[in-house]
């Protein structure tokens, strides 16, 4: 599709921001274009303010943003180089758009610490077709009844309600010459609580990746409200891919859209990238959040702890499922995960599909 000439700069500029490590989602780009159209900008300050508001530019990066803005829209040279030594550590947020993504081979660290590494090693994953196991079929049968629910603002008629429906009572009275035989009562409706899955697809989780993806697909099909993101050295939203009914087709789509399967591990940066995009972070508000990861963080522990703290304040409950906890003698081995424990509702095993299904179905009972 060819963009109108007047629109092209406002689509290209967010792409430049992404190339420099700003987590800008496609919807934010559309919001920026719409905001500029609504403003009918009188000068460049209107465009700058619209960009900062709609692209969620963090305050600490305004200097870098202004340099890019002046370079692109005003053609001014940069006073200082925006490149820095830590640029490769910036983690981007991705949402599949159907466009092809170039995959380059990255350097792999070979240090002790199992298979965890912070280096970005991009690769695709091909999933082998397989039959849904008994655990997934059980999850599909019990999801509507056993998944956690929350009280909504709407009300419905109930024999054991807690509020008289005065409007209905008055209608009855009008029909019966002012006589009311039964007082109609209502109670608050309930709806299924949103579930947010944050799935580690790094190299240290290679053996569990297929199981977690099949679990995520089954849960997406069975529940009303599920959002799923993968992270390794990138953050990728795969909710749309998992809504494809056929499991094998859905996983093929996921394998084609996630570029960092079996790569490095930067959990803290991934969670911070998730929280920095308001539309993504809003998915965690009031949700049951499940982090499926071994917790072998290779980045700054403080980054992960801060991200988990923020996430725990947003969500209804935060559970960390790790395959390492299948060992009865397991204790968190990394400083980051140990410091995260006060903010977690549980740190439980997540090594098999059966365990994952059992845990998510038990959330209502454990709350």
Structure description:
With 367 residues, the chain is of the alpha/beta class. 41% of the residues lie in helices and 14% in strands. It is built from 15 helices and ten strands. It has a seven-stranded mixed beta sheet with strand order 1-7-6-5-8-9-10. Helix 1 crosses helix 4. The chain is globular, with a radius of gyration of 24 Å.
Question: Which terms summarize this structure?
Answer:
alpha/beta; seven-stranded mixed β-sheet; 41% helix
Main sheet characteristics: 7 strands, mixed
Provide the helix percentage: 40-55%
Give the termini distance in whole angstroms. 49 Å
Shape estimate: globular
Secondary structure layout:
Blueprint: H1 8-19, H2 26-39, H3 44-54, H4 62-74, E1 93-94, H5 134-146, E2 149-157, E3 163-164, H6 166-175, E4 185-192, E5 195-200, H7 206-222, E6 226-231, E7 235-237, H8 239-242, H9 247-257, H10 267-276, H11 278-281, E8 288-292, H12 301-314, E9 317-322, H13 335-340, E10 346-349, H14 353-361, H15 363-366
Parallel strand pairs: 1-7, 5-6, 5-8, 8-9, 9-10
Antiparallel strand pairs: 2-4, 3-4, 6-7
Write a short abstract of this structure.
The protein has helices at 8-19, 26-39, 44-54, 62-74, 134-146, 166-175, 206-222, 239-242, 247-257, 267-276, 278-281, 301-314, 335-340, 353-361, 363-366; strands at residues 93-94, 149-157, 163-164, 185-192, 195-200, 226-231, 235-237, 288-292, 317-322, 346-349. The chain is of the alpha/beta class and 367 residues long.
């Amino acid at each position: 599709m060819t963009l109108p000439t007047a629109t092209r700069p406002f689509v290209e500029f967010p792409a430049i921001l992404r190339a420099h490590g700003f987590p800008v989602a496609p919807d934010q780009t559309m919001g920026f274009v719409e905001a500029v159209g609504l403003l009918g900008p009188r000068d460049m300050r209107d465009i700058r303010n619209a960009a900062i508001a709609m692209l969620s530019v963090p305050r600490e990066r305004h200097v870098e943003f202004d340099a890019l803005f002046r370079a692109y829209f005003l053609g001014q040279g940069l006073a200082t180089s925006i490149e820095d030594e830590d640029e490769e550590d910036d983690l981007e947020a991705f949402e599949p758009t159907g466009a092809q993504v170039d995959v380059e081979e990255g350097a792999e660290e070979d240090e002790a610490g199992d298979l965890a590494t912070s280096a970005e090693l991009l690769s695709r994953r091909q999933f082998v077709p397989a039959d849904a196991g008994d655990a997934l079929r059980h999850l599909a049968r019990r999801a509507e009844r056993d998944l956690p629910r929350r009280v909504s603002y709407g009300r419905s008629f109930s024999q054991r309600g807690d509020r008289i429906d005065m409007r209905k009572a008055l209608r009855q009275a009008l029909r019966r010459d002012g006589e009311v035989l039964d007082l109609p009562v209502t109670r608050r409706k309930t709806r299924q609580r949103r579930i947010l899955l944050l799935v580690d697809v790094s190299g240290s989780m290679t053996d569990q990746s297929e199981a977690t993806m099949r679990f995520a697909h089954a849960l997406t099909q069975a529940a009303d409200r599920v959002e799923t993101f993968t992270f390794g050295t990138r953050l990728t939203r795969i909710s749309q891919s998992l809504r494809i009914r056929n499991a094998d087709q859905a996983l093929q789509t996921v394998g084609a859209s996630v570029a960092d399967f079996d790569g490095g591990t930067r959990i803290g940066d991934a969670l911070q990238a998730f929280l920095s995009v308001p539309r993504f972070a809003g998915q965690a508000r009031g949700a049951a959040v499940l982090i499926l990861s071994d917790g072998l963080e290779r980045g700054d522990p403080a980054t992960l702890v801060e991200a988990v703290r923020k996430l725990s304040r947003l969500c209804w409950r935060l559970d960390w499922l790790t395959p390492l906890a299948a060992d009865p003698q397991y204790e968190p081995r990394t400083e980051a995960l140990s410091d995260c424990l006060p903010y977690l509702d549980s740190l439980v095993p997540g090594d098999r599909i059966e365990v994952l299904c059992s845990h998510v179905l038990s959330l209502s009972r454990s709350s």
